[in-house]
Amino acid sequence: MRTRILVAILLVVLLAGGLVLYQHRYTVAQMILSLTVPEAMDFEEVIVEQDQPINEEQSSVEVVVAPKTDQEEPPQNVELLTATIPDQINLAIPFLLQAPTSNWALPYQEACEEASVLMAAAFLGEDVNLSTPQTKAQEILDLVDFEMEYLGFYLDTNVADTISFANSRYPALVFASVANPTVDQIKAFVAQGSPVIVPAAGRELHNPFFSREGPLYHMVVIRGYTTSSFITNDPGVGRGAEYVYSYETIMEAMGDWNDGNPTQGEKVVIVVRKRL
């Protein structure tokens, strides 16, 4: 009788433990994946390691740069300059929470696009002041004001609109779209020192630190990768610096705004580099 009771208790404990692990599976997965994050590298350190194009087939990817003026700018090719794709890399892209002072009222509640653009611009040497929560908040407000003047709106900017206002705001940089990117192409861009901004169906990211379901539409910055995962700066959560998502999670969640249906949106990313 006593043995049966002990077995029953053990089964209850195991089932309860399994339930807890299941409920926190994304948190546990994040903790495990984070153990593999390499040391961050500045842009100058990445450039030193660049060599020749990967090969004739992978050396360039067609990207589309939204025009800064009424004159349409033709598609360009961005060469992938690294000789090989290293096993892992982590760009020292500064993290910017989209609500830097923990004020989640508008516009900060919807400022993932602005925060992503600012992080990429800061890494590539633009004059972006991310020294304090107050200056971070002001940078977001300034960019929102710029969008209102340039686009006439700032909410839920799709990839084309984001590229358009970002190129106008930062003329020394090139923000360009790459449609249907592969994991290796994204890794190659990052390996050459280019931040990659990913639009996504936010709820498909399954970030346990999002409030409630998470955002319908979201943008994150890929700053690096390991052998199994992308290292991101996710502006939607306070723990978003060097936040690790598996390749599968990013590629499946990837989707442009698509009139409020990002789960069916185009698979596309924004690659950011210095203008040559």
Question: What are the salient characteristics of this protein?
Answer:
Cathepsin B, Chain A, 2 domains, 276 residues, alpha+beta, single chain, 8 helices
Instruction: Give the class-level CATH name of the largest domain.
Output: Alpha Beta
Q: What Rg is obtained from the alpha carbons, in whole angstroms?
A: 20 Å
DSSP, total strands: 9
| Biggest β-sheet description | 7 strands, antiparallel
Strand content: 15-25%
Order of helices and strands: HHHEEEHHHEHEEEEHE
Count of separate structural domains = 2
| Average pLDDT | 85
The rough form would be described as globular
Query: Could you say what the CATH architecture of the largest domain is?
Result: Alpha-Beta Complex
Q: Which structural class do the helices and strands define?
A: alpha+beta
Describe the structure.
The protein is an alpha+beta fold and 276 residues long. It has 2 domains: 1-35; 39-274, Alpha-Beta Complex (Cathepsin B, Chain A), CATH 3.90.70.10. Helix content is 34%, strand content 17%. It has 8 helices and 9 strands. Mean pLDDT is 85; it is low at 51-60 and 66-72.
In brief:
The chain is an alpha+beta fold. Helices cover 34% and strands 17% of the residues. The protein has two domains: 1-35; 39-274, Cysteine proteinases (Cathepsin B, Chain A, Alpha-Beta Complex), CATH 3.90.70.10.
